[in-house]
Design goal:
- The complex is a heterotrimer of chains A (311), B (311) and C (289).
- In chain A, helix 1 crosses helix 12 and helix 9 packs antiparallel against helix 12.
- With 311 residues, chain A is mainly α.
- Chain A is built from twelve helices and two strands.
- Chain A starts with 11 loop residues before the first helix and ends with a helix.
- Chain A has one domain: MetI-like fold.
- Helices cover 75% and strands 1% of the residues of chain A.
- In chain B, strand 7, helix 7 and strand 8 form a beta-alpha-beta unit.
- By secondary structure, chain B is of the alpha/beta class.
- Chain C has helices at 2-42, 47-51, 64-95, 100-114, 117-131, 138-163, 166-174, 179-208, 211-214, 227-232, 241-250, 254-282, and strands spanning 54-55, 60-61.
- A two-stranded antiparallel sheet of chain C has the order 1-2.
- Chain C has one domain (47-282): MetI-like (MetI-like fold).
- In chain C, a hairpin with a 4-residue loop joins strand 1 and strand 2 (60-61).
- The chains are: A mainly alpha (311), B alpha/beta (311), C mainly alpha (289).
- Chains in contact: A-B, A-C, B-C.
- The interface between A and C is large, with 86 and 90 residues.
């Protein structure tokens, strides 16, 4: 620090003026986040509700026919909602167990050198743009699933072949996508478990595996739940990665059906939707928004509940 | 103390400078386009003289005129190749003009046009009555064929109109029913707002009756999907067809430029570059663009892209 | 007694095998993804790819315009978001008294980080694009991304500020320094490593964004034609690397897509190294969410 020839005790007037301005500026900055969240919520509601009024809540939310550009348009998004729910649930069922088990491996069962190599690689994967998962899904997964599809439905008269772009492809892409996040956070959670728990458990004669699954994982519960919440958030909010592998036709969510998610519905039609069609797309956005908020609140409550019980 | 106030002043100065620059840039373009008003009138007279001599020459007279400004286009993905080619050659000819294009689908393009957010709306179909009443003027710049494509492993080389209708309405499900191998048909099409889909379904009179297994967002993507999925069928703009797919003959007429010009191939539609109001009421830059398109140079460009010129 | 031990051992063995299999699957994915992208992408990357733009007339197919757009968006977003994020953190850590205000602000910051990017994209499209009239432009994209990365910068700055010992503050205030002076000359410099980490993490997030940019920054791919063009580019549509990847992938130009994917992978790798290096060197606590 070079010599500065001013005193930190300046004139009172300038000091308090500058102080006030500084405080105002900082308060304003902090309120930006609040403002942003309120604006987003407001805009989603303002833009999402007109359609509900125009077309009718039951027609939109519980209708099954999506033909927005037909002579007599129909805006039923029930299948789309079900697809997002089923797809996310399946992705979680696939991804979380593998992720948590891998975290166990990295934190407990792996040779130190391997763990040191794998952890940064997992962090790298957590950071790559999700669209790359979509690219790989398109190139590798779709043809594979198509082969399976042809095999399974060889003699079917009724199955509409999707060429590999269907729910199961999308689910696998989502599951792989949330793996790094789940692994990273679960592993940190496991490592954060106090050593005494592990040592005490081993001391009373439990095996390593028993210690891990009966003592450490429950102790790391809040961290693992955070991992799951983040995984769910990532899965339900993903749009670009699955838009090219899911088929984009509004259907009931069966594994080998071409399907449309809440997110892909917005992405594929927002570019060109007009009037009521556009308003319904915002309603879809609103439904998605509500889901995310619900999940966040419910999961955090479960988390708080769990942690509360422990302490 | 001095340093603080200097810093604040500097910050404010920087902010005002940036603000001024940003607004300044916008203003200069408007100012120059108005100044160019007089010169472009002379430019139009000059270009007409060029056309009359029937020589594609870069006249010194034309180069003296500086057309400035920006042109924004939005719309059909089928017109992407044409729009990009036009943008490039036009910007080379008139370096002070910026031409940008977004590919959002025909219906979206016209909607952006009538909303006033773009100068030209690209549609790969004729304008609807509602669009004309909203002020869009239909300027047909080229004719395009819609090619029905299959993957290269498919042995089928042609279909009748009835067979095509049967496939797309879901009645014919297997290639063996139309003379091919025993393979399920994967029916691929465009999204609901697509001009290509609108034209396709209208020409075959199967609007709202199509059963798709995949609804894809752009002509290029349909091409890619068909090329990589065995047993698939799809419809694309003729100018994107390449060796990765086979274009089927319909009613024994091959999809070629000659057949379309002669009127034998029935799947053709106009490429419309719509403007809000007549061309003569547009900005100088836009008028120059349409003059260019009508010139021999422009027509040659259209044919190089793979389309049919309008006489 | 011996029967009991055998039963326990079986479940142990099963669990251990499950752990090994899961780890194997995960590691396979890891290695598979990285190597696949590398192998498929390395062939496409050459000087021409990196310095030309898509042109059917000149028959080039590069991504120079997109690289420029990505740089523009990173710089613009950081220019706007960093002051706001740091200001936010300073307020929360230095000025605010624990109470409802703080809880609301922290709750909304948490919420913001949980909203999916497609919703930001929708909001950005209507608010910045339509209402404020910026249309499809890099500015619209940057403003949208600003609200997305705000939580990241705020949280990391907060963490950094928390590590500054309380004695610094009391000492300075005891000598009569004003709060603003304290923040400017003592707190911010000490918290700089954490702030920089937050910035680097944000760059990673920005580079990987696609859904939020599709309807805000658009898909422009050309390089500016003149020097003024470089400034006015901010108001024009500009597709970043991820958007370009999506478009090429959709059109079936897989070789190009993998080339872009490899570049993105290398960028993320670089960012990860930087973050690790900085956090180790300056002993910084990193919050990645």
């Amino acid at each position: 620090m070079k010599a500065q020839n001013f005193s930190i005790m300046g004139s009172n007037k300038t000091k308090s003026a500058v102080e006030k301005v500084a405080q105002w500026v900082f308060t304003f900055c902090a309120l930006c986040a609040v403002f942003a969240v309120f604006s987003i919520t407001a805009y989603m509601i303002i833009n999402g509700t007109p359609a509900l009024a125009k077309v009718g809540v039951t027609d939109i939310l519980f209708g099954t026919v999506w033909k927005p550009t037909a002579g007599e348009p129909s805006y039923g998004i029930l299948y789309v909602i079900l697809t997002s729910i089923t797809g996310t649930a399946l992705a979680i069922f696939m991804g979380v167990p593998i992720g948590v088990m891998t975290a166990v491996f990295l934190a407990e069962a792996a040779p130190k050198k391997l763990a040191k190599l794998v952890k940064p690689a997992v962090e790298l994967l957590a950071g790559i743009p999700s669209i790359i998962y979509g690219l790989l899904g398109l190139m590798i997964l779709n043809p594979l699933v198509y082969k399976i599809e042809t095999f399974l439905f060889k003699d079917s008269e009724t199955h509409q072949f999707t060429g590999g772009s269907n729910l199961i492809s999308a689910v696998i892409v989502l599951a792989i996508m949330i793996l790094p996040t789940v692994i990273n956070i679960s592993e940190s959670a496991l490592r954060a478990v106090p050593k005494q728990y592990k040592e005490a458990s081993l001391a009373v004669g439990a095996s390593h595996m028993q210690t891990i699954f009966k003592v450490m994982i429950p102790a790391a519960k809040s961290g693992i739940i955070t991992a799951i919440v983040l995984g769910v958030g990532r899965a339900i909010g993903e749009a670009m990665a699955i838009s090219l592998v899911s088929g984009s036709v509004v259907n009931f969510p069966l594994p080998f059906n071409s399907v449309r998610f809440l997110t892909t519905a917005i992405v594929s039609e927002m570019g060109y939707a007009a009037d009521t069609h556009r308003e319904v797309l915002f309603t879809i956005g609103l439904v998605l928004f509500v889901f995310i908020m619900l999940i966040n609140v419910v999961m955090t409550r479960v988390l708080k509940g769990g942690a509360g019980n422990e302490s | 103390m001095k340093k603080k106030s200097v810093k604040f002043l500097g910050l404010i100065l920087a902010m005002t400078l940036t603000a001024a620059l940003m607004t300044g840039c916008g203003e200069t373009t408007e100012a120059t386009t108005e100044a160019a008003a007089e010169t472009t009138e002379t430019a139009e007279v000059a270009t007409e003289a060029v056309e009359e001599t029937a020589e594609v020459v870069e006249e010194a007279a034309v180069e003296e005129v500086t057309v400035e400004g920006s042109i924004s286009m939005a719309g059909s993905t089928s017109m992407e190749k044409l729009a990009n080619a036009i943008a490039e050659t036009f910007m080379e000819k008139y370096p002070s003009v910026t031409v940008t294009a977004e590919f959002t689908g025909s219906s979206a393009g016209i909607e952006s046009l009538t909303a006033g957010s773009v100068d030209i709306g690209n549609a790969s179909r004729e304008l609807k009555d509602s669009e004309v009443t909203a002020g869009a003027v239909q300027n047909i710049v080229a004719i395009d064929g819609i090619a029905v494509v299959v993957d290269t492993a498919n042995t089928v080389t042609g279909l009748t109109k009835e067979q095509l209708v049967g496939i797309y309405t879901g009645e014919i499900k297997n290639w063996s029913e139309v003379g091919g191998a025993d393979q399920a048909i994967v029916v691929i099409g465009r999204e609901a707002g697509s001009g290509t889909r609108g034209a396709f379904e209208e020409l075959l009179e199967i609007e709202d009756l199509c059963v798709y297994s995949n609804e894809i967002d752009s002509t290029g993507a349909v091409l890619a999907k068909v090329a990589s999925t065995a047993g698939s069928i799809g419809y694309v703009s003729l100018d994107v067809v390449d060796e990765t797919v086979i274009a089927l003959a319909l009613d024994e007429v091959e999809p070629t430029v000659e057949n379309i010009k002669a009127g034998n191939y029935f799947l053709s539609r106009p490429f419309v570059m719509a403007t809000l109001g007549e061309i003569s009421a547009q900005s100088e830059a836009v008028q120059a663009l349409f003059t260019y398109l009508a010139s021999d140079e422009g027509k040659q460009l259209i044919e190089t892209v793979g389309l049919i010129t309008v006489d | 007694m011996s029967l009991e031990r055998k039963k326990k051992r079986i479940s142990d063995v099963v669990l251990l095998w499950l752990v090994y299999i899961s780890a194997f699957i995960s590691i396979l994915m890891l290695v598979g993804i990285v190597s696949y992208v590398f192998i498929k992408g390395i062939a496409t990357i050459n000087w021409e790819f990196l310095t030309t733009v898509r042109s059917s007339i000149k028959e080039t197919n590069g991504i120079a315009g997109n690289i420029l757009n990505t740089i523009y968006i990173i710089v613009l977003t950081l220019l706007i978001a960093t002051p706001i994020g740091i200001g936010s953190a300073i307020y929360l850590n230095e000025y605010a008294k624990p109470g409802r205000m703080v809880r609301i602000i922290e709750f909304t910051t948490e919420t913001l980080s949980g909203i999916p990017s497609i919703i930001f994209g929708l909001f950005g499209m209507i608010f910045f694009g339509n209402t404020l009239g910026f249309g499809y432009s890099i500015l619209t994209g940057a403003l949208t991304l600003t609200i997305m990365i705000l939580p990241l910068i705020t949280r990391n700055t907060q963490e950094a500020l928390k590590t500054v010992p309380q004695s610094y503050r009391s000492g300075a205030l005891g000598m009569g320094a004003t709060k603003w002076y304290l923040i400017r000359t003592i707190l911010l410099p000490s918290a700089m490593p954490g702030i920089i980490t937050g910035i680097i993490l944000s760059i990673g997030r920005i580079v990987g964004e696609s859904a939020a940019l599709l309807f805000t920054a658009g898909s422009g791919y050309l390089l500016p034609a003149s020097t003024e063009g470089y400034l006015s580019k901010i108001m024009e549509s500009g597709g970043t690397l991820t958007i370009e990847l999506y478009l090429r992938m959709a059109k079936g130009q897989y070789a190009d897509a993998f080339g872009i994917a490899l570049i993105l992978l290398l960028i993320v790798l670089g960012i990860n190294f930087l973050t690790k290096y900085l956090s180790r060197k300056f002993d910084v606590r990193v919050d990645r969410r």
